[in-house]
Each structure stands twice: as structure tokens, then as C-alpha cells.
Amino acid sequence: MRALALLWWASWLPAAVFNVRDFGAAADGKSNDAAAIQRAIEAAARGGGVVYFPAGDYLSGTIVLRSNVTLHLAPGATLWGSRRMADYNPPHLIYAREAQNIAIEGGGTIDGNGDAFWEADFTPKRPRPSPLIELWGCRNVRLRDLTIRNAPAWTIHPKNCDGVWIRGLSIINHMNGLNTDGIDPDSSRNVVISDCHIEAGDDCIVLKTTQRGEEPVRPCENVTVSNCTLVSSASALKLGTESHADFRHCVFSNCVIRNSRTGIALLAKDGGTMEGVRFHNITIESWPKFGRGVEWPVTIDLERRGPESRLSRVRDVSFSDIRIYTRGRVLVGGLAERPVEDVSFSNVVMRVLGFEAIERAGKLRGGTAQPVPREQDFGNRPAAFIFANARGVQLQDVAVIWEAAGAAAERHAIYAHNVEDLRVEGFTGRQAVPQGSLGVIALEDCRNVRVSGSRAAAGAGVFLQLRNTPAGEVSLEGNDLRKAWPPGGLR
């Protein structure tokens, strides 16, 4: 009994603490403290412990984190990435491989000195440190309660990891800094990201399954992202484009997205399947990248990256309790030979605040080099919601509200091309131009469609337009079309 009591008491003992100043760190912001920090890490790794950074400025090149070691940056402590590429080997500020039970925490700051690795016009210098924090094949990883700023490229990259908890981070990168992603879980599983604020010149939180060398590619699975505020020059929440293995069981909830070119994106290019993905209780405010181009508050795109790429699959994806403020459009697009499957939008309100120039607009492709035939690109369709090459699309309690000042551009509320098994229930809205030339809902080459319990808003003209869609393929049940024109609202 006494032995058990001693074991219980010992479990509450604080971990051994290794102060980097005791190992020779100058903390003056000028001397390279990498060697001193590494000595402290190696000492802590012998039995496990905390490498402690008291208040001060620690300039460093690459440091390698070992198993059972925690880096603790106290409030007032800043770990500065060296401005000399020669100080990075491998090209990361913090690197761990095949480590377990590791953590980076505290109230301090990590600053990547990103401006040292861009030209004046933000063209990236080659090479540059990337990612700032690389965790490869690690288990039981924790990053929490830190401020990370000015990453030269990607900020945090857990690759092939199992058990990653990221909480309470503030990541602030330059909005013009190319590739300055926030957090990129890659072929990792059991990942929790919560309570973070991220501003990034590229994607804020992006899941990937990248192919590196000849090793087998692992899926990205069992991922939750919640309670985050996100600002992105690219995509705030994204899956892909690197999609060599599957994505499954991923839930994104309770997030606020602001001033982002794309709010939510699923871009499948390399043969992996994206399935079992949920987006819930999210507010999206979109803004064009660097003030130019079009906005995509939500987009799903499935295509081959190159002629030899395997064909991906996207299925079982849901969006619920979503509020959108945008000048852009929602686009869900598959391929004729591989439609997107089982996508649902429930309790979604889209407020359209302006009208983009869309005549030359193309879909969001994520850097895919292979040209796409124009007939496979639905990025220029004049509609708030665009669905193309899909099967099993459900819209329930969706509203489109046109709030743009001044003259409106012709837009459908909903446009569908080559969609099979489309269900629109409880929709409310009209076309952008009151009683304009475009119908509220346009169906082109569609099959097995049911529109029920929906209501034409004041000013609606033609409610439903059919193009190469036989009337027998469309069922109308319990709709309120009294405010449509002509009476009945069909053409």
C-alpha cells in the first residue's frame, strides 16, 4: 500500500527543467543560440523533461526535438529564426522525426523572420526555411498557447503523425507572403485543432496526403477543427490539393472565417477519396485574393492533376448551419465520368453583397497545370449556387438573399448541370434581377429532381427553367410560387 502511495505521489512531481541559459544561450537576439538549445534538448531527452526559455530573445537555426521533451517558451521569450539559410539543416526551425511525447508550449513567441526570405515584391527566395515547424512520423504531439509570427513559408506541418493536439495558437503571417500556410496536417490521424487564430498569406488550415519519395502514402483521418478564427489570402479551411491517399472522418465546426478568398475548399486531384467530411456552424465572409479576382466562399472540385493521375472521389460531404457574406459564388463540380456524390447543404443563408465580373472566371484549381476544357469548367456560370456533374445533391432550408447596392447582374439563385437525384426542400429566394431573364432555379441536363416546400421571394420572375431536362424528370410539391411571374413561375 505504501508503494502505491509513493507511485501516486511521484506521478505529480514536476518534470525536470533544463534552462537554456544554463547551457550557454545568450538570449541577446544576436548570437546564434542553436547549439546551446540543442545541448539542453539532449540533456532533457536522457530522462525526459522541459527545456525552458526564460524571457529573452533567442536567435536560432535548426533545432531537433527529441522524444519526451517539452519546449516551454515563457511569456516574454521569443525564439527567432535565423535570417541566414546556412543555419538551417534540415530547412526547418524546429524539427522532429519519429519522436513521441513531445510538446511546444508556453506564453512566448516564435518568429520566423519571414521578411528575410522574400524579395521586396514578396517573390520567395530559394531556398527558404519551410515548414517552420516540421513534425514527421511523431506520436502524441502537443502545441499550445503560443504566438507564431512571420513564417517564411508553411508554419506547422505534422506529416505521418498520430495523436496531434494543437490548441490556443495565434499564427500571424504576412498576407502577401506566398505559401505561408498556417497548419497543414498531412497523412496524419487523430488530430485536434481548436481555439486558434490564424492569418495567412496562403491556406489557414489545410489537410493533405502528399506523396514523398517511394514510401506508402497514409490517409488523413479522424480530424476535428473547432472554435477557430481564420483570415486567408487563399483558403481558410481546405482539403487537398495533394490527395494521393484518402481523407475521412473529418469535422470542422464553430469557426469564423473573414476576408478570405475561399472559405471552404475540397480539391481532389491525385486519386484519393474524400468522404465523411462535415462542416457545421461556420460563418464565412469572403474577399478577393490581394484585392483581385473572384471569391469562392465554398467550392468542391474533382479533376485529374495530370493525364496520368488517378481519378479521385468526393462523397458524403455536408454543410450545415452556414452563414455566407460574399460577392462570389458556391461551386460544387465533379467530372462527367466521376460525379461528386452525396453533398448536402442544410440551414444555409447566403447574402450576396456585390457582383463579380465572371465572364472570364474559371474554377479554383489549386495550381493544377493541366489545361481543362472550357466545357468542364463551370466557374463562369451566373448563379449563387452552381452544381455540375454530381449525384445525390440535397439543399434543405437554403436561402439566397441579394443585398448588393446599385444595379444587379443577371444571376440564378441555383444552377445545376448534369445532376442526378437533386432535392431542393425549403428553399427561399429569387434571381438577382427582379423578374430578370434568368430563372431562380435552372436545371440543365438533370434527372430525378424534386423541388418541395420552397418559396419564391418577392420580385421573383420565372422560378424554374428547364434546359434539356424533360419535365417528367422534375417533381414539384407544396411550393409557394405566388410571388413568381408568370403565375406558376415555370418555363
Q: Can you put this structure into words, describing what you see?
A:
The protein is mainly β. The protein has a single domain (46-358, 379-477), classed as Pectate Lyase C-like, CATH 2.160.20. The chain contains two helices and 37 strands. It has helices spanning 2-11, 34-45, and strands at residues 17-19, 28-32, 49-53, 56-60, 63-64, 69-73, 77-81, 94-97, 100-105, 109-111, 133-136, 139-144, 147-149, 156-159, 162-167, 170-172, 189-194, 197-200, 205-209, 220-226, 229-232, 235-243, 247-260, 262-268, 273-286, 296-302, 313-326, 330-333, 340-352, 383-402, 412-425, 428-429, 441-444, 447-452, 455-456, 464-467, 474-477. The chain has a 31-stranded parallel sheet that branches. Strands 5-8-11-14 form a four-stranded parallel sheet. A two-stranded parallel ribbon has the order 32-35. It is elongated, with a radius of gyration of 25 Å. Mean pLDDT is 95; it is low at 1-13.
List keywords for this structure.
491 residues; mainly beta; Pectate Lyase C-like; four-stranded parallel β-sheet; disordered N terminus
Query: Gap between N and C termini, in Å?
Result: 84 Å
Kindly report the average pLDDT value. Answer: 95
Residues in β-strands, percent? over 45%
Number of domains: 1
Q: Quaternary arrangement of the chains shown?
A: single chain
Q: According to CATH, what is the topology?
A: Pectate Lyase C-like
Number of strands: 37
Question: Compute the gyration radius: what is it?
Answer: 25 Å
Query: Treating each run of at least 4 consecutive H or I residues as one helix, how many helices?
Result: 2
- Structural class assignment: mainly beta
